Amino acid sequence: MLISHLGRSPLIDPRAYIAPTATICGDVVVGAGSRIMHGASVVAEGGRIEIGACCIIMENAVVRSTGRHATKIGSHCLVGPHAHLVGCAVEDEVFIATGAAIFHGAHLGKGAEVRINGVVHFRSRLPPGETVPIGWVAVGDPIRILPPDQHEEIWAVQKPLNFPLVAYGFDREDADMIKITTRLSDVLASHKDDDVLS
């Protein structure tokens, strides 16, 4: 399903394939030979999403942008089933496995791998060719790759990066769920005027 959002419509190369149960919404560009498979959602919430040539976005993956964070995926990348990418930059030839999560402002270098259920945290930079092992967490710049049971070490790097400010526009000291959900509700209300194109 192709949907116009905020006056922007998806631009799909005629050599790409969009499964009939996939959703492509807003300012999204899909390159030649790319495949967006069943149940995948590619939703531009203000910032552009660019998907290069010969990318595979597997079933039920989610690729999003925000008004503050565009998303760019290079060519010859694979995004596995149930993976989640938001507001990040992914260079060419990157493998993102099933269930992986890549957050706001993250950058994945050429040929990097994020294996099953791996995480690349917001504002973190994964160098070219680097691998995040199954279930591990990559955080910071320079990157630290830690097992998920190292919460205190992950938090020591993550806390000063100030996720509420990066993702929602509220400093950690001022953020609460009332402010966050009210702002998100206002942003998402813009979908009331979306037009289904096909």
Q: Level of helix content?
A: 10-25%
Please write the CATH class name.
Mainly Beta
Q: List low-confidence stretches.
A: none
The coarse overall form would be: globular
Secondary-structure content class: alpha/beta
From the alpha carbons, calculate the radius of gyration and give it in angstroms.
17 Å
Count of distinct strands: 24
How many domains? The number is: 1
Q: Write out the CATH superfamily name.
A: Hexapeptide repeat proteins
Query: What proportion of the residues form beta strands (DSSP E)?
Result: 25-35%
The count of helical stretches stands at 3
**How many strands, what sense, and barrel or not for the largest sheet?**
10 strands, mixed
Q: Write down the CATH topology.
A: UDP N-Acetylglucosamine Acyltransferase, domain 1
Averaged pLDDT: 95
Strand order across the largest sheet: 23-22-19-16-13-10-7-4-1-24
Sequence of secondary-structure elements: EEEEEEEEEEEEEEEEEEEEEEEHHHE
* CATH hierarchy: architecture: 3 Solenoid
Please report the distance between the alpha carbons of the first and last residues. Answer: 6 Å
Could you explain how this protein is built, in words?
The protein is α/β, with parallel strands linked by helices. It has a single domain, classed as UDP N-Acetylglucosamine Acyltransferase, domain 1, CATH 2.160.10. Helices cover 13% and strands 30% of the residues. The chain is built from 3 helices and 24 strands. The chain has helices at 151-158, 163-168, 177-188; strands at residues 2-4, 11-12, 17-18, 23-25, 28-30, 35-36, 41-44, 49-51, 56-57, 62-65, 71-73, 78-79, 84-86, 89-90, 95-96, 101-102, 107-108, 113-114, 119-120, 125-126, 131-132, 137-139, 144-146, 195-196. Strands 23-22-19-16-13-10-7-4-1-24 form a 10-stranded mixed β-sheet, covered by helices on one side. Strands 2-5-8-11-14-17-20 form a 7-stranded parallel β-sheet, with no helix packed on it. The chain is globular. It starts with a strand and ends with a strand.
